[in-house]
Specification:
This protein is an alpha+beta fold. 30% of the residues lie in helices and 38% in strands. The protein is built from 11 helices and 17 strands. The strands form 2 sheets. Strands 1, 2, 3, 4, 5, 6, 7, 8 and 9 form a 9-stranded antiparallel beta sheet that branches. Strands 10, 11, 12, 13, 14, 15, 16 and 17 form an 8-stranded antiparallel beta sheet that branches. A hairpin with a 5-residue loop joins strand 1 and strand 2.
């Protein structure tokens, strides 16, 4: 038997079978940006840069001015970064405080200075191939470092002597904080491999980031487009169909039919393993992930008219499954219930009498309708059809 040559359209949720309120569908770009915005919270950004807190910084001695008449050494540590999010998009300002104590020699005088240092850098979450969310922190420049020098009470110092010290502090702090943010463990915490998280496996991309910070960047629309094919794979779809439908018993009857309702029909059988074929999107179009599915059903039919007449029935039920993005951050598995008119049925009679039994033609539609009803009931169950991606992000990312 062959499936129908007419390819059914991608299914739409129908009010009469909808277990949840009507969905507001999202474009892939919108879904991608919402996903990243939901996943990359202030807490996760803070965790990604937490490794710098408490790290020591020392530098010097440096000699400044003509003939090295001024010089200093500095020692201190990095404080806890502060994270501020800007607007609805995934943009953050990270402020890293650094406290330094300086021992300086200025104009022949030994002084102790306090440097209040603040490193401010803008970062945002980016998406990369194949399905990564990366907290990308640009390299800190001296201009990103602000320095305020304070002398001890009673010490008067010429501002012209302090300015060169502040410039050196800016440069040296930038040179030391950059490696802290780029060390292997900190890098690892800044990469989220969504595919590996969903599969429950270790990510090779996170391990690679420890050694090399190089990515194939993609935009949010491409991330959203890749999200569905990578998660709604043929293997996962097939596993769901096998779990929910394969082996599902079909039991119909006994039904009374025929002239005078003298024929009794009993049907027993089961759904077999489904086959599925990914539908290729039209060139240049971003479409939902769609699978054409053929669900085989094997039935034993008994028509009892004076004596039992047995038949073997083979059915092919065509289905279409689509994975769509919906508001606020949902993945909806949408399957159209089978149309009895599209179900193919082949019957093989056991024996001459069964083959010539006139009552058989009248039960074909009943059998097909009953099988369609059983499959429809299973497919339209709300269980497993709607996945709250936003809720799962909080538990797994």
């Amino acid at each position: 038997m062959r499936p129908t040559d007419e390819t059914p359209p991608a299914p739409a949720l129908r009010a009469e079978r909808e277990p949840v309120p009507e969905q507001e569908w999202l474009e892939y770009a919108e879904f991608g940006e919402r996903f990243v915005a939901h996943a990359v919270t202030e807490e996760r950004v803070a965790a990604a840069v937490a490794g710098v807190t408490g790290r020591k910084i020392t530098f010097g001695p440096f000699k400044l001015g003509p003939a090295g008449l001024a010089g200093f050494v500095a020692e201190g540590k990095v404080g806890e970064p502060r994270i501020v999010r800007h607007g609805p998009h995934v943009h953050y300002t990270v402020t890293v405080p650094v406290s330094l104590a300086l021992k300086a020699l200025l104009g022949g005088r030994k002084l102790r200075l306090e440097a209040v240092v603040s490193v401010e850098v803008a970062l945002h979450a980016r998406t990369a191939s194949p399905l990564l969310v990366v907290i990308d922190i640009p390299a800190i420049r001296p201009d990103d470092v602000s320095v305020v020098l304070r002398t001890q009470a009673g010490d008067a110092v010429n501002e012209m002597l302090l300015d060169p010290i502040a410039g050196v502090v800016q440069r040296e702090v930038a040179n030391r904080v950059n490696p802290m943010l780029a060390d292997p463990q900190t890098r690892r915490r800044r990469v989220f491999d969504i595919e590996a998280i969903v599969a429950g496996t270790e990510s090779a991309h996170r391990r690679r980031a420890e050694a090399e910070w190089a990515f194939d960047w993609i935009d949010y629309a491409e991330f959203g487009r890749r999200f569905f094919p990578l998660l709604v794979t043929p293997e996962r779809v097939n596993a769901v169909l096998e779990e929910r439908l394969a082996g599902r018993p079909i039991e119909i009857g006994p039904l009374r039919t025929g002239p005078g309702r003298r024929a009794t029909v009993t049907v027993r059988g089961a759904v077999r393993l489904p086959t599925l074929r990914p539908r290729e999107p039209a060139p240049g179009h971003i479409e939902p992930v769609v699978y054409d599915i053929t669900l085989p059903v094997a039935l034993d039919i008994t028509v009892d008219v004076l004596k039992a007449n047995r038949y073997r029935a083979e059915l092919e039920v065509p289905l279409v499954l689509a994975a769509r993005a919906a508001d606020p951050l949902l993945l909806v598995i949408d399957v159209d219930p089978p149309d009895p008119a599209e179900i193919r049925l082949e019957l093989a009679a056991e024996g001459v009498r069964a083959a010539t039994l006139g009552a058989l033609a009248k039960i074909r539609k009943q059998v097909v309708a009953q099988v369609a009803g059983v499959i429809r009931k299973e497919l339209t169950s709300g269980s497993g059809r709607v996945i709250d991606v936003g809720a799962r992000i909080g538990k797994s990312v």
